Fold each of these.
Amino acid sequence: MEPLGLSLGLLALFVAFGFMVGVFFGFFGMGGSFLVTPALLILGYPAPVAIGSSMAFVFGTAVIATMKHHDVGEVDYKLGALMFVGIALGIEAGKVLVYGLEAIGRAELVVGTAYVLLLAAIGGLFVRSALRTGSEVTDDSSGDGNEEEIPEIATKIKSYNLPPMVTLADGSKASMWTISGVGGGVGVVSGFLGVGGGFIRMPAIYYLVGVPLAAAVGTSLFGALMSGAVGAFTYGLDGVVDLGVVTGLLAGSALGARIGSAATAYVDEDDVTIYFGVMLLLASFAVALGEFATWLEMPILDTMSFVLLVGSSAFVTVVIFYYGAQAVRTNDIDPTATARGDD
């Protein structure tokens, strides 16, 4: 008997993998499609099924994680809605670019290479930022440590008053040109690479729009909810969403996403930044192995790629749980300690 059309072993694998991706989704604010889609492709699922099932999974997980961030006031719904307009238009532009490359037979090579480089670049940016922040805290321990967590580049961008201006949830203002530009840019990359775009959207909201990190995560999840809904509906109409795969992934992520979202209230933000970066660097290497497996016709590299994806996911999940447990234990010992201000 195969429940949902899957063997018990494969169903258990999807539940476990869904749990880990759900933790990352709630904790880092990324859609998870850059993990789920490659994993399904490595397991032999056709590309449309892998993408459609991944989008449906992202939508379901985003609903759960966004609800948790909503509970603690970490979602800027106005910003998310304004960005979605640019994202939708950008996705269409990205598709046109892909079709142009496909016409000259270069789509797979260019998209695969861009995917690897982009993941590595964003991962490196976050790791570098976290290490620099840690160094500054060590060298300047006399500071009050209570400044608004806005990156320098975002502060610089916000200093240019280009109307129309939009008031964000934290009371600061941002130009509609910046919001539209970020949304459109994220949409182009998302449409070009065929991914949910959370790993681009969250850093863009944080570094360019200038939203505090916790709110950037929550707002990115809200954007994933809307994007995932559109993607799941579109692919669902084509009948390429595997409900067995989606159900298994969602069964695990339902718990994982809430745990990941709750962990953001206890784990230090520097840890959020550096582990997000490490996760993207590992994902970049795993995707690169998958590309080499295709180019060199070496199935062993596909296996190594899948093991790296699952192994790195398990490692980072354990790390998040460890830091969360340490923070909870410290707060239990010292009642005056607080996590991220409220609650």
Note: Residues 3-131+150-329 form one domain.
Amino acid sequence: MNLFQKVKMEYSKVEWPSRTEVIHSTLWVVTMTVLVSIYLGIFDILAVRALNFLEALI
């Protein structure tokens, strides 16, 4: 049994997700990415303002 036959045999064992599972997973990843980006953006703005405020006190 050569390498390509083994690969083909293992490839046939793979259980692929359904179309709806892929769509739901993709939407979940995109949603979480947007939410984390908003959270980090707000944190960054607040941190910059806090540092500017502290710098003004010095």
Note: The two ends are 75 Å apart (CA to CA).
